[in-house]
């Protein structure tokens, strides 16, 4: 097993007033040549958007874009005709494919919204753009992995154009849980949303990340009540 620790304190940080964002990997004006991507995981942004603010219509192509609100709600509109609200507990995916345009705004005029935006390189390029969204019961992730994104129909998750999976869990202090990669050779990236966990001798706290390769699995021990995101992706240089 090879592990790489990604401390929250070493993420890129920008604050535009209406948007405060922390970048686990190089993004926008922040570039760190040692943190460009983790395999097919290209972007992992931790965004907070002020009430009534957001991103005007802009384009994407050939990227799998996943949005997970952690607190609050986000209004979404895109060129596939999709329009609606992404609430806490929902997950959205856009397969940008040959090209998609979309906008994202805080659905509240007063309260901030905090969300994760994740970009994953696709398996196939130039496909027809696609949007999908699904609500997931948080209780179904207590003490176990709740798969929210996967190409496998049996996972009951949002479909992604890549051999990649995203899973969420909530662990009580003292509990342990192992994530097993289902695609041979894939790496696993763990993000601590809240709490504190130990994995392979590493102690991870809120918003710390851990990349795991050449193992196919990683066991997490909760030091405190914790919420975690696992991102399984193909690895390449």
Q: Can you tell me about this structure?
A:
The protein has strands at residues 2-6, 12-15, 19-23, 41-49, 54-60, 64-71, 73-78, 83-87, 90-95, 100-106, 113-120, 130-135, 146-149, 165-171, 176-180, 187-194, 196-199, 202-205, 209-213, 217-222, 226-233. With 237 residues, the chain is mostly beta strands. It folds into 2 domains: 11-135, Jelly Rolls (Sandwich), CATH 2.60.120.10; 140-233, Sandwich (Jelly Rolls), CATH 2.60.120. The strands form 4 sheets. A 7-stranded antiparallel beta sheet has the order 2-3-4-11-6-9-12, with no helix packed on it. Strands 1-19-16-21-14-13 form a 6-stranded antiparallel beta sheet, with no helix packed on it. The model has no long low-confidence stretch (mean pLDDT 95).
